[in-house]
Structure formats: C-alpha cells, structure tokens
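Practice record 12: protein with L-homoserine.
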Amino acid sequence: MKPVRIGVLGLGTVGAGAVNVLQRNAAEIARRAGREIIVTRASARDLQRQRNCDTQDIELTTDPCQIIADPKIDIILELIGGDTLARDLVLQAVANGKHVVTANKALIALHGNEIFDKASAAGVMIAFEAAVAGGIPIIKALREGLSGNQIEWLAGIINGTGNFILTEMRDKGRDFADVLAEAQELGYAEADPTFDVQGIDAGHKLTILASIAFGIPLQFDKVYTEGITEITRSDVAYAEQLGYRIKHLGIARKTGRGIELRVHPTLIPERRLIANVDGVMNAVLVKGDAVGPTLYYGAGAGADPTASAVVADVIDVVRVMTSDPENRVPHLAFQPDALADIPVLPMEQVETAYYLRLQAEDKPGVLADITRILADHRISIEAIIQKEPVAGETTLPVIMLTQKTMEREMNAAISKIENLATITGKVTRIRVETLG
Ligand code: HSE
C-alpha cells in the first residue's frame, strides 16, 4: 500500500520531537498502522537554525501554506502553536481535505467548536491527544476507555511547568524566576510563560477535558483561572504541617446546578497519590460512576513525551482514514448533535473548602472577631494554627482550614476580615479539595 505522507508545520520542541519519533520507530509504527508513514515536507520560520532532528530527507520551506496546498500530503501536523496563524492554517488544511493532528490546546479550546464543525462537514479528522497532559493518553481514555460511564468529576495537574516550579520551590527552596528559566530552557514552558504560571494553559486543557467528559461545547471563556505566582514558601510549609500539599489543579465537576470549571492552587491531602506527582509530571484523576476513581500519570511536557501523543494520533488517523466519517469516534466524544447545554457555574457559586492565612495583632479578641465573621457566613472551621510572633513583631500568622462553603460567602467573609483594624494586609486564600 502507498505510504502516508506527512507535512509538519513547525520544527520547534514538539515538531522536532515528532519527526524524531516517526523516524526512530518507523518500522514499529508501520506494523501498527498497516502502512508506512513518512514525513516528506516541513515548515519552519528560520531554515538556518540548528534543528534537533534529522531533516535531510525532508523538503523544508518557510511557507506553511505550500505544504497545506500540496495534494501529495495526506496529514498535516500543526505544531506551531498560538491561535491566530494556526487557526487559519488548520481551517485551510481542512478545506483542502487534509486530516490534521495538533498539539495546540489554545487552538482547540478557543476555536475547536468551529474547527470540528468544518472538519465534520469536510469528512476529515482533527486529532489532539498531545494538547492535554503531554504524553498521557487522557483524551483517548476519556473518549473511549471510559465511554460507558457518567463522568462525575476530574481533577488534574495539567501544566508541567507550574508543577516543576512548585516542586523545585518546595524541595530545594529555589527561586521562582530561576526555576521558570530552567523550564523554558528544557522546552516545557509556553512561548509566553505567563500562560503557564497564570493558569491559562491549564485552563485551555481543562476546557478540552470538560467537553469530552460531559459532552458540552468548548467554553474557555467560562473557566475561572488563578495562577501560582502568589504561593509563598510559608504557605507550602503550613500546608505540610496540616497534612496537605499545594498543587495547581484544573477541576471540572458536574453538580446538580451546573458544571464547575476552575484552575487554581489547591491543598490536597498528602496521602492522595496525586499530591505526590512532582516535577514536570502530570496526572489526571477521573471519577466515573461505574469505574470509580481512576488516575492517569506521565510526563506532561517535553519533546519525546509530547511526540508520543502526536504519533499515536497519526497512527489513529491512518487506521481510520478509509472508514466512513459517521462511524469515527466523535471529536468531543459525544455525537455533535447531542452536546448538552448544561450551564458552567460562575466561580461565586462554586462550593469548596479553604485554607486561609492572615497576619493578626497579638491581642485578646482578635481570633473571636475572625471566627464570628466566619460564623455569620455559616462557614465552619476545621483547624486553626496560630504561630508565635517573630521577635520584634507585633503581629502573628494565623492559619485556618474551613469546611466547604460557597465561594460567594467566603468572598464576603474575607472582605470583612480584611477590614478589621487588627488584621494587616490581605488574607491569603487557597482552595482545599479532598478528592476522595
Ligand atoms: N507549557 C506546557 C506545560 C507544555 O508546561 O505543561 C505542555 O502542554
């Protein structure tokens, strides 16, 4: 049978990684796919730059449009990232009847609804396993392996850079900026690393996971995102004293009132497996009604792990290229005309428990004032730690764990606590999930 010809757009970390894996494992891949798969063309912005892959048998160009227009190319790998040029190129590839494999979470989270509609109409596939959690086959697990379940919730460490930073800060006391620079050198971070540390990248990935889990359209604009930049080493240490680890989680939960979609630093009991996922590793915990809790773990970023997911998608596309489009696995797991319009809840209506850290004056009645405010908002306290004041200081840190409450009640209570004359500065709030 004729080989399948691949055109690669972008030869950065992921593009070079995909070329390497396709070449290195070519024989094994052909045995799996039933056909030889070869990269014949690739585009890159700067052809003079040193590449981390062998391009001697690949025709290179700076113009990705040439590859998309080439009738000899069967599958396009979109590995340039971003959501403007990438969107135009993918839509054009679809219009030209080409299947597309992409690692681009921003593209799918922001424009996936439009792209899938057009791809379905054109009878081509868009595969995006590498867009979420690097090498972990979480899209396949949710879309196919768990398709008999009602998914109740999922929670994941889905940004490798952020997890790498938190781990290095905790274990080695390293400085935030220094670890971020290393994550950039290792090719983990996004082109704009604020996407990693502000929770935007995790928000893109959570959007995709939630759509596949619950059968809802992609809605990145409804995701609440909070980053890791405000986490201090003292919060990490207090959390440990209370038996918790701080992780940057993406959480999607179906409730009777709607769907919670949120990304934020979270205290997790340290006995949970996911609390012990460190470095650039990712993990996604999925709770299905039939299977119960399941956990998926692996490298969340980096050239080879991401290429592993890209190449698996290429093989999948090759296997089903000739099958009737109606009988393929739907892009978002559910049939396109069966997507649900369950509302995504505003953050104010989310229910969770909280860790609070505040700086209080060391005098009688201060704790009573704080607990009265919490009681007025029907917020129960689970634990309190009051530290000794540092010599020469008149204030001391108070750390509290609360039981579950509505975010709206906690917002109101925090603003009243911050207005107390005996409280200095802002209250630090980190959400707590038991993930039981
Ligand atoms: N910047 C991303 C991360 C790359 O660190 O997880 C993988 O999507």
